[in-house]
Amino acid sequence: MRVRPVVMSDVAREAGVSQQTVSRVLHDHPSVRPETRARVNAAIERLGYRPNLAARSLAAGRSRTVGVLLTSQLSHGTAAIFAAIADSARQEGYQLVVVSARDDSSVSVAMALDELAGYRVEVSIILARRIAALDELGTKPASRPRILVAGQGGIDGVTTVAIDQTSGAVAATEHLLRTGRRRLVHVAGDLSNVDAVARRDAFVRTCDDAGVEAVVIDSGAWSAEAGARAGAVALGASPDGVFAANDDLALGVMRALHDAGYRVPDHVGLIGFDDVPSSRMLVPSLTTVVQDFRALGRAVMAQVVAVADGEEPEDVLLPARLVIRESTRPAT
């Protein structure tokens, strides 16, 4: 026997109120008294009622659907950001439509943007970090608001919500300097990525300000294997401090130092970026820069809601935070 789904009239009957009152509670209308709101919410919980978001959105003339564009460069950070956005979207009552670009080229991103425009989305969220993809955003007009989760802003017609890569890289470099290191090397990530460029540039500026030579090694990637290769090259500069552009690169650098007979942190201080779960389990544990991806997801959805409600969007730049662990302990 097929069980009939719970509808709004069932909730109204259970709570002893009208359907209009139930609707006001679902829309968080301020006219509902607290005791009535509590009674309706209790009835919703008991009956297991799930509002029909699509029907409610159509009645309001809104889709309550958000588009998300992903590129093929799905790193730890991008995956964590997407999960946070999806979680926040559910809490706000939005559905996601996800479109993937075939690769990170401007042509593929343009095609993905065209595909996304075909859906009835209120706002498009762009999870792209390659410079070519960001350049495409600046040249392609949009009929719907766009939110870019990367960079430092400055793209016409695009709202930027991101974590401040520059301040994180400055904090990492300054920490190495404070611990007495002066022969510093930066192992850069994939420099077609806007975050990698921001971290490298911040390292170079901070070294210049301190009167210290800035040595940069382009690893061309984000992997531990690339870090190990770059770490072997870095040994030629006789570093006493290395700032790797992410934790995976730092892991590879740590291996290269170990294989060459160098001890971290006694001979070389080492810092990563991202605070992946394994970073605190390494021996020595890795000093790194934390990016609060959950806070970023909430900030993105806050802008989505603001735009959908007719408010003017604004760029948001969240702080990064240095976490000091064993790998940068001052040399004894």
UniProtKB/TrEMBL annotation:
<keyword id="KW-0238">DNA-binding</keyword>
<feature type="domain" description="HTH lacI-type">
    <location>
        <begin position="6"/>
        <end position="60"/>
    </location>
</feature>
<dbReference type="InterPro" id="IPR046335">
    <property type="entry name" value="LacI/GalR-like_sensor"/>
</dbReference>
<dbReference type="GO" id="GO:0003700">
    <property type="term" value="F:DNA-binding transcription factor activity"/>
</dbReference>
<keyword id="KW-0805">Transcription regulation</keyword>
<keyword id="KW-0804">Transcription</keyword>
<dbReference type="InterPro" id="IPR010982">
    <property type="entry name" value="Lambda_DNA-bd_dom_sf"/>
</dbReference>
<dbReference type="InterPro" id="IPR028082">
    <property type="entry name" value="Peripla_BP_I"/>
</dbReference>
<dbReference type="GO" id="GO:0000976">
    <property type="term" value="F:transcription cis-regulatory region binding"/>
</dbReference>
<dbReference type="Pfam" id="PF00356">
    <property type="entry name" value="LacI"/>
</dbReference>
<dbReference type="InterPro" id="IPR000843">
    <property type="entry name" value="HTH_LacI"/>
</dbReference>
<protein>
    <submittedName>
        <fullName>Transcriptional regulator, LacI family</fullName>
    </submittedName>
</protein>
<dbReference type="Pfam" id="PF13377">
    <property type="entry name" value="Peripla_BP_3"/>
</dbReference>
